[in-house]
Task: inverse folding
């Protein structure tokens, strides 16, 4: 099955196409990633890794992200500033998502029912070490309710939040969108 690991846009811009999971017991998660259809493509020792602990790389198909790296660690993780809330995997269709949900359940995990997120539909579960994974459908897509060329020009709220627009907008920080004449930061 084709799966794609979502990678933060800033990481993709810098040329990285991977998500790294530091886990005390990586084996169950590695087996889960293989169950999810990712391919184990190798191991390596990198400069930032603990000596003797090699990272194992899993390849994901698709245009959004390419790799999930799993690194053994003795320290437990914690949520806070600078951490990732969850790792999302794109599923092409509802049928693909349902098949993956069943595969995840067969590994002893407890995925949620499908949740409608307006622009896509998601299933959530915590993998064996507690990392939150999301299986998100590819559609209907962010351009389902506004033209692709206008994405990001204004705040678009899904149906149930429309009646709370004033309240939501009042609590948002002001955002300045660079004009088309502005040079890129790297120039």
Result:
């Amino acid at each position: 099955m084709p799966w794609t690991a979502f990678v933060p846009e800033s990481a993709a811009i810098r040329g990285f196409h991977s998500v790294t999971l530091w886990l005390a017991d990586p084996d169950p998660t590695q087996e889960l990633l293989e169950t999810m259809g990712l391919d184990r493509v190798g191991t390596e020792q990198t400069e930032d890794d603990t000596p003797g602990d090699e990272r194992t790389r899993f390849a994901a198909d698709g245009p959004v992200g390419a790799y999930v790296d799993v690194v053994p660690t003795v320290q437990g993780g914690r949520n806070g500033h600078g951490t990732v809330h969850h790792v999302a995997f794109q599923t092409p269709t509802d049928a693909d998502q349902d098949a993956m949900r069943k595969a995840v359940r067969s590994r002893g995990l407890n995925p949620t029912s499908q949740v409608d997120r307006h622009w896509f539909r998601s299933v959530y579960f915590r993998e064996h070490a507690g990392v939150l994974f999301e299986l998100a459908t590819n559609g209907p897509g962010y351009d389902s309710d506004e033209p692709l060329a206008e994405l990001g020009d204004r705040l678009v709220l899904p149906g149930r939040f429309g009646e709370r627009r004033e309240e939501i907008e009042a609590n948002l920080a002001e955002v300045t969108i660079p004009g088309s004449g502005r040079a890129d930061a790297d120039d």
